[in-house]
Design brief:
Radius of gyration of chain B: 27 Å
Strand order of the largest sheet of chain B: 2-1-3-4
Largest interface: A-B, 26 and 23 residues
Order of helices and strands of chain B: HHEHEHEHEHHHHHHHHH
Shape of chain B: elongated
CATH superfamily of chain A: P-loop containing nucleotide triphosphate hydrolases
Distance between the termini of chain A: 45 Å
Helix content of chain A: 25-40%
Number of domains of chain A: 1
Structural class of chain B: mainly alpha
Number of strands of chain B: 4
Number of helices of chain B: 14
Strand content of chain B: under 5%
Radius of gyration of chain A: 18 Å
Structural class of chain A: alpha/beta
Number of strands of chain A: 10
Helix content of chain B: 55-70%
Oligomer: heterodimer
CATH topology of chain A: Rossmann fold
CATH architecture of chain A: 3-Layer(aba) Sandwich
């Protein structure tokens, strides 16, 4: 495992959003160089957690620590190195792939050389090289998500937060997208956090965190969790908890 | 600076590729200028004139002939002999009623009085009709009063309403276009969700604000030559003053309206809301700008609003520069006031926008 990367530690995070207690004392650790899956049903608090990690929301109580090998760093020091892809995928329909990359390049203030190299690598990895002149409004669902991803990867982040990136994408494109994440993990020193409500995607992660009602249910390697819970899939794991909640 | 340039390129591409925005920027000004300039005229034309009591009098015949020859009047087709019913039934706009015994006879007695019925459901039209008749009578009797005015109408010798209205319409268009472009572009990012990406990107809030305003100041300014060109080509609007002064005035005004657009976008969540906000702002500001109704005639409560309305100063500037050639004092004063307003609008919305960003 690469050692220069960033790891995150969340302790006792509480957040109330209007009437609902979105996070209720959340504890989680994310290790550098791994793909972490944050799995949970709708409304479990996945997006709220990511927004806290991204510094868009501030917790009522609790702490988020950002760590490098040589010790803790503040969020503002890390900010340049965190990329975030929001759930409602945000691209400009009238701009082409090329124009998107150009705009994000100015947002991230990349030098000409860095940009050229990065652009080539990312387009190749995402297999979008042939479509650079195509407008975002003319891209398929899968390509659209990939474009969103490479835009956020342009700045070579150390931490990548993906909020339900494969939501509403067909199974083939989903597989394609995950392949892209694996390639990325292989080639770069990066911590990837993916939230998803597709339970089958849990198995694709190296470490999963089961989130329910703003609390952490379980953390660990997906296989180990299934063995421990004697379940075949993560659906079953959640069903077990659901049954526990309903029985008095 | 590079970030700003990136924003400018992006906003120009987006705006120019969006058909709705293209219409707003290029077609709407031409169409609206034409419509307003041609249709908005306080000159009364095609006035249907009828005569009750017959045209046997030579004086009456003369008045009638002169009226028709003036081009403002057309003969009315009437079915009734009752002058009131002719107007009531909308067959005539003005009716001349001959006095009993004929006009010539009453003139002979020295008490010449001709009754004139005018439909005043439209006041400006009625006033126009009255004026035309007075001038016809004056032209009939060439008596020389001991004093007469040697009138020289300056800057708009033909007293064309278009020359008065077109600068107003031009200002209104600039105001509308820049407010809508700015506020809709920002709320669109909110709707798309791209706003979250901008906030999450490692750029300072100031850069985002500049990135979302400077392009629209530029787009608004690029619209000025088009609007001025159409006004000059279609209505023979003169440009007697300096083009640079006009552009400078337009620049401070556009900064002001872009600031207002930015402000609207901090309240509105959707493009529809920002469009509504834009129109809600525009209507009173047009009415209170002196574009059609003179500010001096307003009650003081409303006049206060006219004086804090940027449009008032810009219309005055345009009229002054285009028709009169530009008075140094008025120009300096109005540009200073507009700059102060622009500064205020931008500071207030900058603050509000920053709180939305954080």
């Amino acid at each position: 495992m690469n050692t220069s990367g960033v790891s995150l530690k969340v302790t006792g995070l509480f957040k109330k959003l209007r009437q609902t207690q979105a996070l209720q004392g959340l504890d989680m650790t994310f290790e550098s160089g791994l793909i972490h899956g944050i799995i949970g049903p709708e409304g479990a608090g996945k997006t709220t957690l990511l927004r806290h990690l991204m510094g868009l929301l501030h917790a009522d109580r609790g702490e988020i620590q950002y760590r490098r090998q040589d010790g803790d760093i503040s969020f503002s020091e890390l900010r340049q190195n965190i990329a975030y892809m929001p759930q409602t995928q945000s691209l400009y329909p009238e701009l082409s792939i090329h124009e998107h990359l150009e705009f994000f390049r100015t947002l991230y203030q990349l030098s000409d050389q860095d940009y050229a190299e990065r652009r080539r690598a990312l387009l190749q990895m995402s297999r979008l090289e042939e479509f650079t002149e195509r407008l975002a409004s003319e891209l398929s669902g899968g390509m659209y998500k990939k474009l969103g991803l490479i835009c956020s990867l342009l700045a070579s982040p150390l931490v990548l937060l993906l909020d339900e990136p494969t939501n509403g994408v067909d199974p083939l494109s989903r597989r394609d997208f995950w392949q892209l994440l694996y390639d990325l993990q292989k080639s770069e020193d990066i911590l990837i956090l993916v939230t998803t409500s597709y339970m089958d995607e849990a198995l694709k992660c190296q470490k999963v965190h089961l989130l329910f009602d703003g609390k952490t249910l379980l953390e660990g390697q997906p296989d180990a969790i299934l063995q421990q819970k004697k379940c075949k899939s993560f659906d079953e794991v959640f069903l077990q908890y659901d049954a526990l909640e309903e029985s008095p | 600076m590079k970030t700003l340039w990136g924003f400018i390129r992006k906003e120009f591409r987006q705006t120019l590729r969006d058909p709705r925005m293209r219409i707003l920027l290029f077609l709407a000004p031409c169409v609206q200028l034409t419509i307003f300039g041609v249709a908005l005229s306080t000159e009364a034309k095609n006035i249907r004139l009828s005569v009750v009591g017959g045209l046997s009098d030579t004086t009456l015949q003369e008045i009638h002939r002169k009226a028709l020859a003036s081009g403002w009047f057309i003969p009315a087709r009437t079915s009734s002999q009752d002058p009131f019913m002719q107007i009531q039934n909308d067959e005539a706009d003005a009716v001349m009623v001959t006095p009993v015994g004929g006009l010539d006879r009453s003139l002979g007695r020295g008490t010449g009085e001709l009754q004139l019925l005018i439909n005043a459901t439209n006041v400006t039209r009625a006033q126009g009709i009255e004026r035309y008749f007075s001038s016809i009578v004056r032209s009939l009797y060439e008596f020389k009063p001991p004093l007469s005015f040697d009138v020289r109408v300056l800057y708009n010798p033909a007293m064309r309403t278009a020359l008065f209205l077109v600068p107003g319409v031009m200002s209104m268009l600039v105001c509308l276009i820049t407010i809508l472009l700015t506020s809709m572009s920002i709320t669109r990012e909110k709707e798309l969700g791209t706003f979250e990406t901008l906030i999450a990107a490692p750029v300072r809030p100031e850069e985002v604000i500049l990135g979302k305003t400077v392009p629209f100041v530029l787009l608004g300014m690029s619209n000025i030559p088009l609007i001025v060109g159409v006004a000059m080509a279609l209505f023979g609007m003169p440009l007697r003053g300096s083009l640079w002064l006009l552009l400078l005035s337009a620049f401070v005004f556009v900064c002001c309206t872009v600031g207002i657009g930015l402000f609207i976008s901090t309240i509105a969540r959707t493009q529809q809301q920002s469009m509504m906000g834009g129109f809600l702002y525009l209507f009173p500001s047009v009415l209170l700008s002196g574009m059609v109704f003179p500010v001096e005639n307003m009650p003081w409560v409303l006049r206060v609003f006219s004086y804090i309305n940027p449009l008032t100063y810009f219309i005055e500037l345009l009229r002054n520069i285009m028709l009169k050639g530009g008075d140094a004092r008025l120009i300096v004063f109005n540009i200073l006031i507009l700059s102060a307003m622009a500064l205020l609008a931008i500071t207030v919305s900058w603050r509000r926008f920053k709180t939305t960003l954080s």
